[in-house]
Amino acid sequence: MALATSLVACTDDRKNAADALDKEVMQIHDEVMPKMGKVLTYRKRINNKIDSCRTQACKDSLQPISYALSKADEDMMQWMRNFERPEGLDTAEAYLTVQKQEIEKVSALVEEGLEKAAYILGE
With b meaning 16 or more CB within 10 Å and e meaning fewer, what string describes 92-109? Predict the structure, then answer.
């Protein structure tokens, strides 16, 4: 009987850990997602500035910002397409740990791109 109780407790702990990780992953996603409209708006405005540049140096200074915003958008879309909630406890924690790391990377790309664009756009 003690072994059965011990196994149930272990399973409950693993499920609770997986549920907590899932909530963390979704919280990060939910914080980043509303910023994606701004990413697209800033990218369009930066691209318009690139189009109006008169020198290659001007274009060269703005291209990395446009690229950073594009990468942030692409990485977010790819993460969302690929994310699937795991069904079994055996893989849930490992999978969600990786997903948390991935969405944190996306979040950092979004923040970095928005900061650089806002600086260039004077906002």
Answer: bbebbeebbebbeebbeb
Average pLDDT per consecutive 10 residues, the chain (123 residues; last block may be shorter)? 46 82 97 97 98 97 97 98 87 93 98 97 92
Q: How far apart are the first and last CA of the chain?
A: 65
pLDDT at res. 10? 56
Q: What single DSSP character describes residue 33?
A: G
C-beta separation of 24 from 100 below 8 A: yes
The residue segments making up the domain with residue 99 are: 2-121
From residue 41, how far is each of 13, 25, 55, 60, 101 by CA, in Å?
44, 25, 24, 20, 26
Number of domains observed in the structure of the chain = 1
Helix ranges (DSSP H) in 33-122: 36-52, 56-82, 89-121
3-class DSSP assignment, residue 95: helix
